[in-house]
Task: structure prediction
Amino acid sequence: MQVSSPHESLPRSALTTEVVTASHEQPLRGVVIGLGHQGLKHAQTILAHPDAILAGAADPGEQAQALFGQSFPETSVPVSADVSSLLEALDEPPDFAVVAVTHDAYPDIIKELCHRGLPFLKEKPFARNLAEADELLGITSIAQYCYTATQRSHSQLERNMNKLLELAPEPTYFRYIYTLGRSAANIGWRSDLARAGGGSLLDMGYHVLARVYDWFGQPDSVQTVLGVHGKIAGSADAEDLVSLLLSYDSGLYGWVVLSPTSTQKEESFLISFPGTFVAGTANQAAHYTEHGHPVYTLGAAEEDLTASQLTHFLQKVRSGEGFAEDQQRQRAIMALIEKCYQSRPKR
Result:
């Protein structure tokens, strides 16, 4: 089916929503590895989810362990310094794990969980670079156990954008701007190239480039400008500005700008079609006529994407079908990031 007129709206029946529901089986027991901001969020999500039970947690930091106890005072579960100690402390093996650690800590944890045959959901990025991604993909049975988190792929906006792009004419142009409201002093470990893999392009850009890949595919040409003169947190090489020009043989081209330092967090995108355009933010968007009149909305203002993502992951765990398709997608995103790095001018 094609949209017959550039002003014709996508049928409302094509717009979708996703609801978190309980299965009719016993809840699955899960552990959280890494108790920073994102790890605590995952722990809270597991505790509130009808199909999951929090069985334990792990983090090498004593402060992180203490904060976990303060955050969930009514939750009595083992808390250990590392994965091995935690799994040995449990009365019975868990059904899954959620991993949210610094980028450099993932490889060893991934290897151990695959060796133990424990399905796990890990935070993005899949790896710090394409070579590391290929090394991880060489782990026996990783396709059965490893699922990488990109919460936005579970949003109502993402589902409806994918449907729109199936039905609408070919887009002609897009732009995506993403800045974080951080000062140079509080970038933290993300300014450490060995731990973070580069900074803005890999860390912030993973969300954006995942969308670019999902919506438009792999670009045929990339031109990259990296700004590293801000010396974020004392690092001369951490990326304080990334500008990407992406082009496709179809004639589509787009512009992406990323920066971790700004007075406020801002995320916006625009996609131009013949006679119409879509403009939006992280989780909301609207389809407009060429004169700027809104036709319909494509997303929801309030969504618990962490819960939707966990629901999807638990369903995959129960099915036993593995995560090979997701890993192919993650490698393609890593390949796009690698292409961006390779296209930057030599200094």
User: Anything to note?
Assistant: The CA atoms of residues 93 and 116 lie 10 Å apart. Confidence is low (pLDDT under 50) at residues 1-17. The first helix runs from residue 37 to 48.
